[in-house]
Amino acid sequence: MLDIRVEKCAQLKEKPADETKLGFGKIFTDYMAMVDWDREKGWHDARIVPFGNFSMHPASTCLHYGAEIFEGLKAYRRKDGGVQLFRPWENARRMMNSAERLCLPQLPEEDFLQVVTTLVKMEEDWVPHLEGTSLYIRPFTFGTDETLGVHAVEHAAFCVILSPVGSYYKEGINPVGIMIEDQDVRAVRGGTGYAKCGGNYAASNRAGERAERQGYSQVLWLDGVERKYIEEVGAMNVMFKISGEVVTPALTGSILPGVTRKSCIDVLRGKGYNVVERLLSVDELAAAMENGTLEEAWGCGTAAVISPIGKLAYKDRTYIVNGGEIGEVTHMLYDTLTGIQWGKIEDPFGWTLRI
Ligand SMILES: *Cc1c(COP(=O)(O)O)cnc(C)c1O
Question: What one-character-per-residue DSSP string does 99-157 give?
């Protein structure tokens, strides 16, 4: 158990009056949590302090060599007024794995959970009430060594910030257009693809911008070695229903192991669907689009939960999936996961944690 001290704000901020205009990650709550780390003392000085700017040495490792990892999860307002988290244990464990890959210090899972739940409890009134809204939780760890020398960090900090976010689907769930990227790659096997780190995002930006300029909302990544196998879409995992079976790329090391992905698989198997995790080549997908056996396609991640894919572009061809409409299985997954997350339906899996 960490001993978390609290430094109170002199004055609290005004809560957003209009929950239809929250957007994503623009508004922050009154407090943030911090825990320092160094090689001698380990984790120490856990504290909840007023939200504000950091003061940082210009040579700090995180600013030069990408010594940064993060997590993303949400606190949901239940119908009965309570607040709950969705599978926070998974985020705690994944952050340990990300830290191990980047040689950043590993915050023990129980300490991660203690800091997150203590902060969210304190900021409970910031969890919005409007349908589809939530309080986004962003834990992150970054290296703070004050040297330009390149090595594993000796000093680091863990921080948690909170942001009330709007509904992802204000105009209803509309299928999106996705461009299959055959030039840039996001990650390679043996690299940092399975770690949730800022560096992976830096590598993705150029293709993302290019797709957006061409009117697509995300890119679908191919593997970094052969540019042949489907990996994931933007910052979401991806699933396809082909000839009645659900196919999702196997976790080969270059794919981020999403909590939503794992939850989709469990829900689908629980309902008797056949789900296979395997290599899926872009040629096989193109053939399934040509011959009409691709029935549904969707992305899955914490931000959107489920994002139906209505259009896929590959080289100079574009394919319409399921007539550009949201499919039956896609819809079922959306209703089931959001139902459990917002406490609208029973949680038979034990995935939620009441705060
Ligand atoms: C966070 C993330 C996901 C989705 O993971 P969830 O745990 O479901 O939110 C997928 N891909 C990338 C690259 C990510 O960073």
Answer: HHHHTPPPPPHHHHHHHHHHHHHHTGGGS--STT-EEEEEEEEEE--BS---SS-SEEE
